[in-house]
Amino acid sequence: MTGGEGSPQPVRVLIVDDDALVRAGLSMILGGAPELRVVGEAADGDQVPAAVAACAPDVVLMDIRMPRVDGLAATEALRALPRPPEVLVLTTFDADDQVLRALRAGAAGFLLKDTPPAEIVRAVCRVAAGEATLSPTVTRQLIRHVTAAEPAGGDPRRDRARRLLAVLSEREREVALALGRGRTNAEISAELFMSVATVKAYVSRLLTKLDLNNRVQVAILVHDAEL
């Protein structure tokens, strides 16, 4: 986003967490970054629709565990809107088996609650810019951790994923597989001998062809296909 004279506009952020101390801490961290602006807070998922309508955030930091409406349901509701804000899930990681479900619902990624402040700021900015929000290591770790508890016999999901990936060209498939390995655009560029701009174009094409929201969902689809 840019202002009328080309000056960058701060990314508008809504913080959703039932813990007042967490909200205060995040507000302090994000409010201290000139590229971000905290435009509102919500203490439960049932407050999110009204808060989004009132504050028009670019990014929502969404806690998973809340007493009335959890972050998963709130994320699904938000992503069903015509022009939804991006969602970053807040999690303790080793306790939240719903993280992958949130990513499937269209969340752009996740943040650990003990993430260093500078990393939180960078993650929010990346999400607002439509860029990668998970490091390769974290992507692989998240998928392994959360899906380890999924029941066996997930053949329908695997078959659906393989059918979707079958419509891709050979080059598109190579890019999809690289995303499944948690590769960044720069790493894909080096591996496949194409420019970063071309990689970005392929990622956009994949999202359109596969009807997905972001690159994290492409990685999950590749995982589902067991490729």
UniProtKB/TrEMBL annotation:
<dbReference type="GO" id="GO:0006355">
    <property type="term" value="P:regulation of DNA-templated transcription"/>
</dbReference>
<protein>
    <submittedName>
        <fullName>LuxR family transcriptional regulator</fullName>
    </submittedName>
</protein>
<keyword id="KW-0238">DNA-binding</keyword>
<feature type="domain" description="Response regulatory">
    <location>
        <begin position="12"/>
        <end position="128"/>
    </location>
</feature>
<keyword id="KW-0805">Transcription regulation</keyword>
<dbReference type="GO" id="GO:0000160">
    <property type="term" value="P:phosphorelay signal transduction system"/>
</dbReference>
<feature type="modified residue" description="4-aspartylphosphate">
    <location>
        <position position="63"/>
    </location>
</feature>
<dbReference type="GO" id="GO:0003677">
    <property type="term" value="F:DNA binding"/>
</dbReference>
<dbReference type="InterPro" id="IPR000792">
    <property type="entry name" value="Tscrpt_reg_LuxR_C"/>
</dbReference>
<dbReference type="Pfam" id="PF00072">
    <property type="entry name" value="Response_reg"/>
</dbReference>
<keyword id="KW-0804">Transcription</keyword>
<dbReference type="InterPro" id="IPR016032">
    <property type="entry name" value="Sig_transdc_resp-reg_C-effctor"/>
</dbReference>
<feature type="domain" description="HTH luxR-type">
    <location>
        <begin position="161"/>
        <end position="226"/>
    </location>
</feature>
<dbReference type="InterPro" id="IPR039420">
    <property type="entry name" value="WalR-like"/>
</dbReference>
<dbReference type="InterPro" id="IPR058245">
    <property type="entry name" value="NreC/VraR/RcsB-like_REC"/>
</dbReference>
<dbReference type="InterPro" id="IPR011006">
    <property type="entry name" value="CheY-like_superfamily"/>
</dbReference>
<dbReference type="Pfam" id="PF00196">
    <property type="entry name" value="GerE"/>
</dbReference>
<dbReference type="InterPro" id="IPR001789">
    <property type="entry name" value="Sig_transdc_resp-reg_receiver"/>
</dbReference>
<keyword id="KW-0597">Phosphoprotein</keyword>
